[in-house]
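Please review the protein record below. Let me know how this chain folds according to its tokens.
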Amino acid sequence: MTKKFNGVQSTKKQEGIGLPAAIFVITLMAGIAVAVNLLVEQNAESFTEDLNFTRAFYAAESGAGFAMNTIFPPEEYPAYATTAECAAGPRVYNFIVDGINQCSASVTCALITISGTNYATIESAGTCGDVARSIQVRTVY
């Protein structure tokens, strides 16, 4: 049975798109929310890893600086040619200062003499959490 309403026929059984459209929009918004959440989570993990890489680098650099200070102590400045010493054994420094707190550096020094000139190679591996960075410094004395 059809009725006329202002000249337009209407049926008793109406079909609409409102409910399917609402379900589609809600599903789409939920998918976008999940995707944004995953991106934020990945960025947070990436930031933490980058921060630990930087902290490990500075821990390694600090360990190399301590080794350089051991080879060339400031109080023996003019006499480095006779007093400088490259300790071969590994030294471990555990840091408790801000910035590299709970990081460590393992430092080794190798001495090579070529034509009467001493070359010291310092290798320092900084570790912060589960991230490690290493640097190498070579000096002559």
